[in-house]
Amino acid sequence: MQAEEANDPLAWSIKRWHKSSDGTSHLGSVLDRVAGRPFPGPPGGEGPPLRVLPVGGLGEIGMNCMLVGVRDRYILVDAGLMFPDFADLGMQKILPDVSFLAQWRDKIEAVVITHGHEDHIGALPWVIPALDPSVPVYAGGFVLQLVARRLQEFNLYDPARGA
User: What superkingdom does the record give (predicted)?
Assistant: First the structure.
């Protein structure tokens, strides 16, 4: 990591795998350390008008998950998982860092699913419990059915949520 990145609170850290007892893993980042702090912006300003926070899947195929927002109102776009390769023995799934999402739960107003591939919906059973129960899930008709089925498998389906 270069010296200027070390002082930047939004710079990504060296990849750290976190394993849980259920065989899932997620990739941590320095975003863990800045979850409760306001974003830096121009001097005298409130920060950038549009913020894009990759929660998972940045620079890799799979685990698509990002927060997009203005001020302190965010939409979570996708909640995917990634399947490990042969070098990641002992892992069944690799998930976005849901502990980060739990810290931001009062700022997340909706979940939008772009399409029904596993790298876009596979982590929903771990992401949905981290969010406020009133947060709706939006997707196209067929994709919404896939999401509902996925959540039913984990007893997380709530028709009032949209999925």
Answer: Eukaryota
